[in-house]
Design a protein that fits this description.
By secondary structure, the protein is mostly helical. The chain has helices spanning 2-24, 30-42, 46-58, 60-68, 70-75, 114-117, 122-125, 127-135, 137-143, 180-186, 189-193, and strands at 91-95, 100-105, 153-158, 164-168. The protein has a two-stranded parallel sheet with strand order 1-4. The chain has a two-stranded parallel sheet with strand order 2-3. Helix 3 packs across helix 4 (60-68), helix 3 (46-58) packs across helix 10 and helix 8 (127-135) crosses helix 9 (137-143). It is globular and about 55 Å long.
Length: 202
């Protein structure tokens, strides 16, 4: 993990340097950068995915529609612009069950359903993760702290520009009386990638 942190720090420094250079050359402005950041903070991110999953948890009919026609089901909800635009084309949801655990990966580059999960984490783009997740997903998940029993089928979905997958994680026990808003608060990007399960905070 420390290696990933070092890479993140290095990448962040390069991004800041590139941003400063582009502003200095007049190619972009600081205002443009602020608008992009605001878009990902307020309009497009994992909070959208959390709302979708929470809705699927409390409404079985909606969950069925989500799994059968993901874009149409997402369009039923009141989301901001861009949900079906860049990086959101042809999104497809798969559901975890007691018998099946799903994991998403992009073997070619870093295709990712930005509208519902936000920007991809560094490890998702890492070539080592991309290769190992296909070859030995159970071992990779264990390194994330998720020990999947042998009795559970692990399925890996290769997300791409054609289909951008995300996971509807299992609803944790003890949340039967929770509201959608309460449920959305505990749903993490990692759980919608299949790299973690949703847990009730201590």
């Amino acid at each position: 993990m420390s290696e990933n942190v070092e890479r993140e720090t290095y990448s962040a420094a390069r991004v800041r340097a590139l941003e400063s250079l582009l502003i200095e050359k007049g190619i972009i402005t600081g205002e443009t950068v602020d608008q992009v950041i605001e878009f990902f903070e307020k309009d497009m991110g994992p909070f959208n995915g959390a709302k979708i999953v929470a809705k699927a948890w409390v409404d079985p009919e909606y969950k069925q529609r989500l799994l059968e026609d993901t874009p149409a089901a997402i369009a039923e909800l009141n989301f901001p612009r861009g949900m079906a635009g860049a990086e959101g084309e042809n999104m497809k949801a798969v559901a975890n069950t007691p018998e099946v655990h799903n994991l998403i990966v992009c073997t070619m580059c870093s295709c990712y359903p930005w509208p519902v999960l936000g920007l991809p984490p560094y490890w998702f783009k890492d070539p080592t993760f991309r290769a190992r997740a296909i070859r030995e997903p159970r071992k990779v998940l264990k390194e994330f702290g998720l020990d999947i029993p042998e009795s559970v089928d692990v399925r890996v979905w290769d997300t791409s520009a054609q289909i951008r997958w995300f996971v509807v994680p299992e609803r944790p026990e003890g949340t039967e009386d929770w509201t959608e808003a309460q449920l959305a608060d505990i749903i993490t990007p990692e759980s919608m990638q299949g790299a973690a399960k949703v847990v009730i905070p201590a």
